[in-house]
Amino acid sequence: MTPGVQLRGVSAGYDGVEVLHGVDLTVRSGTLTAVLGASGCGKSTLLRVVAGFLRPSAGEVEVAGRTVAGPGRHVAPERRRVGIVPQEGALFPHLDVAGNIGFGLPRRGRAARVAELLDIIGLPAMERARPHELSGGMAQRVALARALAPAPDVVLLDEPFSALDVSLRASVRAEVITALKACDATAVLVTHDQDEALSIADEVAVLRAGSIVQVAAPRQIYEHPVDRDLAVFLGDCNLLAADRTPAGTLTCILGELPATVPFDAGAGVAMLRPEHIDARPGTGASATVAQLSYHGHDVLLDITLANGSNVKSRMLAGVDTPAPGDRVNLHVIGV
Amino acid sequence: MNRRPPRWLLLLAVASAAIALIPFGYLLLRISDAGWDVVWSVLSRPRTWEVALNSLSLTVAVAASCLLIGIPSAWLVSRARLPLRGVWLVLLALPLAVPSYVAAYAWLALFPGMSGFGGAWLVLTLVSTPYVVLPVAAAFRASDAGAEEVARSLGASPWRAFRRAGLPQVLPAAAAGTLLAAIYTLSDFGTVAIMRYDAFTRAIYASYRASFDRTSAAVLALLLVVLALVFVLGEQASRGSAQRWRTGSGTARQGSPVPLGGWRWPALIGLGGLTFVALGVPTYSLLRMLITSASANTVDVGSLTSAAAATISVSAIGAVIAVLLALPVGILAARYRGAAVRATETGAFVSHVLPGVVVGLSLVFFTLSVVPAVYQTVVVVGFAYGVLFLPKALGSVRTAMAAVPPVLEQQSRSLGRGPAATFVRVTVPLIWTGVLAGGVLAMLTAMKELPATLMLRPTGMETLATQIWRHTEVADYAGAAPYAAALLVLASIPAFWLSRVVSGPRLTDGASDSIPAERDLAELEVRV
Q1: Predicted confidence (pLDDT) per residue in B285-309, tens digit
Q2: Least CB–CB distance from A77: residue in B408, B413, B429
Q3: How confident is residue B362, by pLDDT bands cut at 50, 70 and 90?
Q4: Do A299 and A327 have their domain in common?
Q5: What is the mean pLDDT of residues B407-435?
Q6: Are residues B499 and B522 in the same domain?
Q7: Same-domain pairing of B353 and B376
Q8: % of chain B beyond a pLDDT of 90
Q9: Residue ranges of the alpha helices (H) in A25-128?
Q10: Which of the four pLDDT bands, split at 50, 70 and 90, describes residue A280?
Q11: What share of chain A is helix, strand, coil (3-state, %, to 5)?
Q12: Partner A contacted by B167 (CB < 8 A)
């Protein structure tokens, strides 16, 4: 099947400063890929290259099998069939909701298509509302509907939820994903929020300093990051000195770990997420709880081992949650 | 922001800037043709330095009095607990609507003996105090009362807290406003001419009229431009620092109004007195002259209508020219950066430094020797207006364009609309009110223009401004009254429309992120 978007060796930048360095990325048709990276890593530049607002200095971009950018070739944004949802919606302030959604549609059949999209985004009967009357979440959904209306080959979403209140973010996110699936759209979403990328994407591509570090399914990338920096970037983690046994398993201060635990043979370091360490009185390496930070649904424990090293453990909060000063035994679960 | 401007836009903008530079360029050409010894002989005349000293002393005196009156007035209307605070602010701003020569004429009609330095000082102070009051009042409103409260909590007395924490917050605005008043005084022709005070503008006009000595008029004009440039550069620098002043984002908190206690009556008497001299006296004088002229049955309705019609049509031509010149430069300046863009914008802003009398003089030279066919035609008057008021139109166009986020145009492109369709369907609907406002503003200012109109108008054509001038020159104060009244009424129509457009709701939220003081400064420039 033809990929929805394919980037081959794409480099791009502004005023001679290169921001993207030879990016390769394939987005399968009909899937949502999250491009995850810290601010300034080139995420937005990547979107601008695909949308056609910026010419790459090297490499090729294909959308639905058509080369839209490459050596000697630059298809204008209006001929790419690439929709984009910018950060704060950027609705046309002089048009109402129907005018915004119908902007990219031919006159014939416009009204019907607008009504259909209003249904999909869950805002029926809002045709005549003006952009300034909409809440942030509504505006974002209208912006998505506007991008989806001409049935583009791919939709690009540029940090679409970062301007929303935290309380609103989850529900708008869910509605946007539903709408994307309803239209069977290929989508690329850029975000700096790890939780967001891991929870909504079919695949996560991590961009660091203008280069792709890893592309994989969320679970794969979280549990098996390709390097230490990525492991730390994706969430809390314990980096433990370890050795590989002849049997292929790992030994460290917590005892023997299964071979499935990520291990950097060069540095002799094994990576364990805090939720994989259970700290309760019982069997296993003995240690003392030094600190506890309470998050409501769970707690993060800072634990000091007998040899003075520290590990973190995340546990569901409950009646058996240890307190600072308690003696506990550590054992590894779920890997 | 990062892309290079399209070549056609850059070409149009460069052409506009080049056209705007014609008066200044031709003035330089004329002077260099005359040769250095002629320039030197004009510069070494004691008379030249006498005029320069006159201009400078008047400018400094007016600036100082505006500052001294302006800061306390601004504080009263923005910080003090005062009955009818909003009304006082409007009353303090209103003198801006009165052309300086109308105010001068009204005072002179009441007190024929008050010509000279004193008269010019009084009238120019009264008409230009709003330049200080408005930005300072805005700065007081925008400044964070928190700073003064912190100062109080650190043990400062109220007066000390004001001096150390409150006043410094408005000083940049006060400096910018004072410099605006100074620039206005330096380039004003009407007041000094009517008050018969030998400042630069009057001397230039006089030596132009004495047609055997036009080169010395040109040298004086250049000297005036250099002086004005110093003040304009100072104003831009102080405005820059006014913008940098607020620390932190978020809304500045307004302090609660300060109760005046026993100072309440002196404060009200002061504001009332200021309003009385700035508005009451000229209004009374004008009404008196109007009644005199009406009862003597000397109102010439025919020439009044034709003067009004000429005023409207010529200033409309000027406004159209100003907008046409401003469009490419404004769009370019709002969207692109770079040396070429900056140079173009600076070129277009040169008219900021050109007093009307200088543009008039230069265009007399230019038309006589380059395009004699348009000498003393409506075309050249309109062109003079276009060049003179290009900065006003440019400011509006640029602001309107800058308020359109480029992301909207990119959206349109992504949705399948090409560059031309995007311009028509997205950009134009978003900027047209701003562009129109720029045109109306240019027209409003052009209606009140006097010196360039006097020098360039076709023989036999009279506008309201030139009629006022003609009658005042021969001390026929009653005869000038109908024209002055007509001008005030005519000018108030676009001014009213503008004040509604400017203070109306903004199109996009993105446009409102400038801090209030900055917006009010821009608004002030709109009104001036």
Answers
A1: 999 999 988 888 777 889 999 999 9
A2: B413
A3: very high
A4: yes
A5: 92
A6: yes
A7: yes
A8: 45
A9: 43-51, 97-101, 110-120
A10: confident
A11: 25, 35, 40
A12: no
- Which residues span the domain enclosing B441? 1-32+284-528
Tell me if A52 and B413 make a contact (CB, 8 A cut-off).
yes
CB contact under 8 A, B508 and A93: yes
- Structural domain harbouring A45: 5-223
Report how far Cα B519 is from the mean position of its chain's Cα atoms.
16
Q: Count CB-CB contacts under 10 A for residue B1.
A: 7
Residue of B nearest to A88 (CA): B407
In which element (H, E) is residue B156 found? none
B508 occurs within a structural domain: yes
Indicate the residue among B243, B272, B306 that finishes a domain.
B243
Q: Which of residues 148-207 of A touch B (CB under 8 A)?
A: 149-150, 152
- Judge: B408–A90 Cβ closer than 8 Å, yes or no: yes
Q: Does B415 touch chain A (CB under 8 A)?
A: yes
Residue A243 lies in a domain: yes
Q: Are residues B399 and B348 in the same domain?
A: yes
B484 and B370, same domain (yes or no): yes
Could you tell me the pTM of the whole model? 0.79
Q: Which pLDDT tens digit goes with each residue over A227-243? A: 999 999 999 999 999 99
Tally helices (H) and strands (E) across chain A: 8, 22
- Structurally, how many domains does chain B consist of? 2
Q: Most A CBs within 10 Å: which of B1, B414, B426, as the mutation test of the A interface? A: B414
Q: How far apart are CA B199 and CA B56, in angstroms?
A: 8
What is the distance in angstroms between the Cα of B507 and the nearest Cα belonging to chain A? 6
Measured CA distances, A185 to A83, A142, A205, B255, B511 (Å):
10, 16, 18, 53, 33
Give me the mean pLDDT over the B136-153 stretch.
79
- CA of B418 to nearest chain A CA: how many angstroms apart? 6
Residue B457: strand, helix, or coil = coil
The whole-number pLDDT of residue B240 equals 62
Cα(B479)–Cα(B293) distance, integer angstroms: 6
Which residues on B lie below 8 Å from A14 (Cβ)? Answer: 2
Return the closest-CA partner of residue A241 out of A278, A272, A287, A220.
A272
Residues B155 and B218 in one domain: yes
